[in-house]
Each structure stands twice: as C-alpha cells, then as structure tokens.
Amino acid sequence: MTQKTRYRVHDGRRYKVVRFRGFEGFIVRWTASCTGCLETEDGHHVGHYDFDEKAKCHLGAGCEECGYHGKTRREEWVPFDEADYLAHEWREWKKERAAS
User: Distance between CA atoms of 57 and 12, rounded to whole angstroms?
Assistant: First the structure.
C-alpha cells in the first residue's frame, strides 16, 4: 500500500514530508566543492580553482569521488521541529550511555 505524498510549509517554503525515526522533516540538497580534489589549507584554497557560478562553488581538479567533475551533490534530512528531535536524540543518547 503506497502512502499519499504529503507537503508542508516551513519558513515560507513548501517541502515534501519525509519521516525519519518517527519525526517529520524534509530533504535539502546542494552542490558543493569536492572534498577529494579541492585542496585547502585552513579553509583557504591552495592554488587556482575555477568558480562555478551556477553551483556557487569552486571546482576541484577532478577525482573518483566526484566523477571527475570537481563538485558533488549533497543532501541532508532536516526536522520540521528541531527542538523536539534534538530532545529525543538527547534522551536516547542518555539511555544508551546509562546502559553501558
């Protein structure tokens, strides 16, 4: 049985609802410089790397990690109610800690 896709407005934007550990959230996606081929030292680039205006990131030299493009797509789940989710995670962590 498939569930109907639900959407929810958060901070003025409409997001598809994704459940994780019993909490509702959404997925954010972005393009970032490849950590495998973009050389940095203390957060500053070592050498010259082209900047991709569309992706808003510097392009690395290219490696297996990024498919030789110099940039990668990333995504992360974000809870709608961050305070409740973090409180839940904290309680779970304390339970695990007490059990060991």
Answer: 26
